[in-house]
Each structure stands twice: as C-alpha cells, then as structure tokens.
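Example (one chain per record):
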Amino acid sequence: MKELVVVLFLFSSFLLFLSIFKRLFLKENRIQYRVNRYIVQAEQGEDKAKSPRFNIQLKYTKNHIRKKFLTKDKNVKLELFLSRSGVPLKPEEYVMFQFISIALTSGISYLIFESLLILPFTAVLGYYIPKMILVNKQKRRLKDFNDDLPEMISTIIGALRAGFSFQQALKSVMEEAGPILKEELKLVIKEMQYGTSVEDALNQLKERMPSEDLDLMIQAIVIQRQVGGNLATVLEKIVETIRDRIKIQGQISTLTAQGRLSGAIVGLLPVILGLILYIIEPSYIGTLFENAIGIILLVVAIVSCIIGFFLIRKITAIEV
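Predicted structure:
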C-alpha cells in the first residue's frame, strides 16, 4: 500500500513537472500566448472563459509562494535569471518547479534504494536540477547571440554609412536577425520608442545578455555619443576584434577537446563498470544497496565523480 501511494504521488508530481518543463521551451512568448488564449476564450463565449477550479487554486499557490519564499531582492534576481534564460516563467513558477523536482528526485530515490539516508542528498540534487537546466539553456542562448553579433554589427555599419540613424540601423538589423537577436533588438527598439534613452536601453540589453562582445560594442556606442566621432569606423574595429576572438576560441576549443573528453570519461567510467559488474555478478554490487554503509559509499562516489568532472571542465575552460 505504501509503495502504491508513493507511485501515485510521483506520477502526479511528474505531470506537474512536465507541464512546467514544457513552458521552459515554449517558442511563443508569454504576451502572445496570453493574447491568443483570450481570443480563443472570447470566441467560445463568456461562460466557457471562466477559470476552472484548478487554475484558481494554482493562482492562489503562486501568490502564497511569492509572499512566503520570495523577497523583493530575490524576486528581482530570479526575474533577471529567467529573462537571461529566455523562458516564459515567473519567479514563483520557478520555485514551484524546484519543489516538484525535489519531490520527484526524493521519491524516485526512495523507491530505488528504500532508505531514508539518501533523501537529503537527492533533495539537494532535485533543488539544483531546474537551475542546471536553465543555466545550460542560458549558455546556449548566449552562444547563439554571440554567433550572430558580428553580422549584426556589420549590418549596422553598412546602414550607418548609407545614411541611416542608429535606431533605423537597429530596425534594419532586426528584420534580418535570428530569433534570439531579433527578440532582444525588438525589446530595445520598443524601449527607445517609449522614451528610454539609447544608453539606458543598451545597458538593459547588456543586463539581459551578459556578453563581453556586446559590452565592448555598447561601450563604444556610449562613448561615441558623448564625445562624437565616426561610429561606423569604431564599430568596424570592434567587429574585427570580435572575429579574431572567435577564431582564437575555436583554436582553444580544438586544443582542449582531449581534456574535456577525459572529464566525460571520469564521470561515466565508474557507472559503466558498475553496470558491467552488476550484469556479471549481481551479488557484488547488490551489497551496496542493501545496507546503510553501502548507500553512503555510493553517494560519496557519485559526488566525487561529479566534482572531478566539473573540475576538469573548469581547468579546460580557458577564457579569451
């Protein structure tokens, strides 16, 4: 009976986890999603547009989390973190995602090991899983942005030399840019249209996109607007510097490939050996799962492998 209750709890937690996880990779932005939802509700009629009990309860839960777990500073930091990741989540929804992840990892580990000793370790792991997902998404998003940046600057240079203003040059870039760059430039242009100065709009872009290459470009634009000069010439020098940096980063990535592969082997080799031993002689490995000392040794081994993997990644990550 106890196992059935745990399984049902895990299944319901998994469904909630899956629904929030789906929103992490929602291509459509939040505003457009909400507009489309209200359009559909209006077409279906006012009676059908009323929120069901589940939505009301979910809204109440979000408000409770916002009041109990999120201070003003933490809310601002989470909003910046989520915007850098490009996910349509609010801070309270992210906290819900963490709670569900903790419940899932703890429940699954209890079903596998049938021991309460491992629950604190798996709870910590579950707490950090959403953050690891978003950090990985943030890195990929920043990489795509940096890849498009040299072409963006080159297009701005061409537009400026053709007689366009800086804001008009940004609009011409936005029409041809990739999805991430287009989204950010659209927000910058909208802020300028609402009265925000060019410097403030670009600095807010730098907050959302912590790119060193972008920072270099923004500093050049801000200085040029303060002291004057030919912006196209300055940006031309900057884009050459950025392309040289990208070239050097590619060379370093090639030279450190062996080290990164070693890190992957360090992390995977114990797992593969454990599976092989379990297939050949289950009693050798089975002992580790049958008593508290064995489970503690397994946890220490897993943590050590993870630390070794990230240390090697850190050593081979050379900044240019």
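Caption: Residues 119-161 form the longest helix (43 residues).
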